[in-house]
Specification:
The complex is a heterodimer of chains A (342) and B (116).
Chain A (H helix, E strand, L loop, with lengths): L25 H30 L7 H4 L14 H25 L3 H31 L4 E4 L4 E5 L41 H10 L4 E7 L4 H4 L14 E3 L2 H8 L2 E5 L12 H34 L1 H5 L3 H26 L1
Antiparallel strand pairs in A: 1-2, 1-5, 2-3, 3-4
Chain B lengths: L8 H24 L2 H4 L2 E2 L2 E2 H21 L7 H35 L7
Antiparallel strand pairs in B: 1-2
Helix pairs in contact in B: 1-3
The chains are: A alpha+beta (342), B mainly alpha (116).
């Protein structure tokens, strides 16, 4: 028996409480266990994203074409810069958090408060940036056409550059009024109508012979693809979206059923419908974590100011909330990789 | 807590430097997408994606070990936290990604067509 009896704390009663076999007290341990379960939740989301992406690997949108906005740089394609900035903001707020924990170990109240304050500001800037990113994503930029089969058609000019619907859509003398609740017969209504009707886009396309249709399909530079006469092989590059010939573009566009502008949970102008769903769900869930982290940080910040931890002679509470805050940063590192880089 | 009163300032700023450099490298590669990496595959994933994923794991290591102070915890706590995640996530990824690739092949090569 001697070998199996715990020897960690032989002077006191082992089962009487008060000893810490893992060297961490109750609160910190529970924070770690919460983080483990939350990490598994996020892993589940990201794995589901990976599943859908592998399932539609040939038609998945290219991130560098979707996230191209930067504040005050309107119309300048700036892929990744903004999200890189957001990553820096979050990493830096992690640094100020760990500085607050460090100051807490030395019982320096005003330093802890100062670094907590910086952490909160960083968190707020991050949430604000994410809101701005969502705004651009929801609003969209170019617009697209959904065909009757459900695939997405985008438009490019004869150099392969993307063209916005507003730059070529014709204006037809047609009246299509939005059905709203006060006009419906029985609680009937419909979502906001797109700026242009399908007929207007088709007419505009006919009037601009230089335009071509770009499909969702990623072009693969092999012999089978090269013999395809429907594809414009001069403009289409390997691992980029396929651009069709003018004749094939017109055939595809005849099948148009909907004008898609921006993104919502049903469809989006970027490509696969699931792409926007996962974007909203995963970045939204992460943003919610950041938001709750900021709220918890504010509570702890006021406790620091009130001297609660000074009286307790331990700033371990700052350490616990710090663990959560770093975890939020950790999740963002993965979201950044799998949504924007890979 | 043996480290109660010592300061880790140097270590914190060093880790911040490492994380920043890795992020900058990732962004540069993400924008340039060099063909050498992007067009060559290893285990049916291109080298660029391998690079991104490895750098991400390095970043995760530094965040957990330095910022969350895992390096100062007992090894039993380290294993309790890290091992379930590593094993469960690798299993989940293996099973889901293989299945997704299978579904992709079915839609691509057989008479069943995904048309909506």
């Amino acid at each position: 028996m001697g070998a199996t009896v715990t020897t960690a704390n032989s002077e006191e009663k082992t089962w009487g409480g008060g000893n810490q076999p893992l060297g961490a007290d109750y609160g910190k341990l529970m924070m770690w266990f919460f983080i483990v379960s939350d990490a598994l939740t996020f892993s589940g989301f990201l794995a589901a994203y990976g599943f859908s992406r592998f399932k539609f690997i040939e038609t998945w949108p290219l991130a560098e074409e979707v996230f191209t906005h930067f504040p005050f740089m309107h119309g300048v394609p700036a892929p990744m810069y903004y999200v890189a900035l957001m990553t820096f903001i979050l990493i830096f707020s992690s640094v100020t958090m760990v500085l607050a924990v460090d100051a807490g170990h030395q019982m320096k109240k005003s330093k802890v408060a100062f670094y907590m304050f910086l952490t909160i500001i960083g968190g707020l800037i991050f949430v604000g940036s994410q809101a701005w990113e969502w705004k651009n994503f929801i609003h969209g930029e170019y617009g697209a056409i959904e065909t009757k089969g459900g695939s997405l058609l985008q438009f490019v000019d004869n150099t392969g550059k993307r063209v916005k619907l507003e730059d070529f859509a014709a204006t037809l003398p047609e009246e299509r009024e939005r059905l709203e609740k006060n006009k419906g017969r029985w609680f009937m209504s419909e979502p906001a109508l797109p700026t242009y009707s399908v007929a207007e886009v088709q007419a505009g396309f006919k009037a601009h012979p230089e335009l071509l249709v770009r499909t969702e399909v990623l072009y693969k530079d092999d012999a089978a693809a090269k013999s395809d006469t429907k594809v414009n092989h001069e403009l289409t590059k390997h691992k980029h979206k396929t651009i069709l010939t003018r004749a094939e573009s017109e055939t595809r566009l005849a099948n148009a059923s909907l004008v898609v502008e921006g993104a919502n949970l049903t469809r989006n102008e970027y490509g696969s419908k699931l792409f926007a769903d996962f974007f909203f769900f995963i970045t939204g869930f992460h943003g919610f974590h950041v938001f709750s982290g900021v709220v918890i940080n504010v509570i702890i910040f006021f406790n620091v100011l009130l001297g609660t931890y000074e009286k307790r002679k331990s700033y371990e509470m700052v350490e616990k909330v710090g663990l959560y805050w770093h975890f939020v940063d950790l999740v963002w590192v993965f979201v950044f990789t799998f949504f924007y880089l890979v | 807590m043996s480290h109660a009163h010592e300061s880790n300032l140097g270590r914190i700023w060093k880790v911040f430097g490492i994380l920043s450099v890795i992020t900058i490298v990732e962004v540069i590669f993400g924008i340039l997408k060099p063909d050498v990496l992007h067009m060559n595959n290893f285990l049916s994933m291109n080298l660029l994606n391998w690079l991104f994923i490895i750098l991400t794991l390095v970043k995760a290591y530094f965040i957990v070990w330095a910022f969350m102070h895992m390096e100062g915890e007992k090894s039993s706590l380290r294993w309790i936290v890290v091992s379930p995640i590593i094993f469960l996530v690798s299993y989940l990824l293996f099973i889901l990604l293989v299945e997704a690739d299978y579904i992709f092949e079915i839609f691509k090569n057989s008479t069943i067509k995904w048309n909506f």
